[in-house]
Amino acid sequence: MHSQFDPLTEAFLSNPYPFLAEQREEAPVAYCPAIDMWIVSRHADVEYVFLNPDLFSASIAQATLLPLCDAAVDILKDDFGIEPVMSNFDPPGHTRIRRRLAQAFSMKRMRVLTPVIEDRCAEILDRFADAGTADLAQELCYPLPAITIFAMIGFPPEDNDQIKEWCADKLVVNWGRPTEEAQVRAAETMVAFWKYVVAFVARRRQEPADDLTTDLMLGKDMSEPLTDNEIASILFGLSFAGHETTTNQTANCLRQIVENGYWEKLRQDRDLVPKAVEESIRHDSSVIAWRRLAKQETAIGGVTVPAGAKLMLSVGAANRDPDAYDNPEAFDPERAWPKDHLSFGRGIHLCLGAHLARIEMGVILNQMLDRFADLELVEGTPLEFPPNISFRGPVHLPARWTLA
Length: 404
Ligand code: HEM
Prior knowledge:
Number of strands: 10
Helix content: 40-55%
Distance between the termini: 53 Å
Bound molecules: protoporphyrin IX containing FE
């Protein structure tokens, strides 16, 4: 067992893959005292856990990694009324809510959204393309997914900057080891954003519009209506799930394409674009770990874990398992379709935004390929990754190019 394994060290954050490979080979299901969790790292074992909600609860998926300090708990206790609705909810409650949300993520809404994404992406690129250089993570990968999910929900565009600020602190608090000061700040912003979402839902009840929020209120099947608090809880979660993941994934994808010399090939053959997107989601996932709780003593890959064991499903390790992929460490968009990666989970909680994320990444890549004859990363400061166990993508990605 690798008792030293700690996914919050600098070395791990900057490149987790050598650590994950060693863990998968030597102790594929093992207790990790540093975070008080069991690490599960083989593809077959991670998939098994995802596919067995009767044995493994999703209830800890959004929990804070460490208990919050008293001051943060105090701030949250009266004014933060969020309830479990999606990724941290088990059946039967989850089944009812997921059915409604899945209807709201309809193909029709995706079709309507696609030209909006294309227009917004063009506007963003117009701002800096001529300069020949930019921090792509901050200036492109960050704003587009945020604008997209907020538009889908129906938040007024003039509120976008404020909402982005509110969403920023949640990551390190729920999935990292934040200072008390950071916990208090995050608790304050979470309360502020929660109040905003509650007020927004109340307004939509009075003034329906053509957006996902209204779809949740006025869906076809109203036999099981959602309460306003459930809708607010869904929107709160979506505001976060819908952009941080895709922002990081787009930055990871651009990085892999450039570092592995695929820019010119993609310019020559656009059929490779969706393959490069999918391969980046496998090879360099923006969600490298996800959590479950063992409901009873049970065996995973031949190792017994106790009832109440907190599991860290190492998606990053599973996606590079040599039992599941040939040459798994290589970024190879030309490999046989890599879609059985576990980056979107599996089973009843399978990511509802997977299709949207693929659309956004495809739009960004195609528009960049249209405009940029070449693309290279600016050498210099090492890439920085936010200190948390689940979400991975470079905070900055300075790059330069020549216009086509
Ligand atoms: C590349 C980008 C993304 C990645 C890697 C990703 C990853 C994930 C993962 C790992 C889960 C948990 C699956 C499980 O527990 O079995 C999940 C769930 C979810 N994701 Fe995503 N996601 C991405 C983009 C999005 C987007 C753009 C949206 C919304 C617009 C979204 C909405 C959701 C929702 C609502 C759930 C909860 C589903 C449920 O519990 O039934 N995701 N995602």
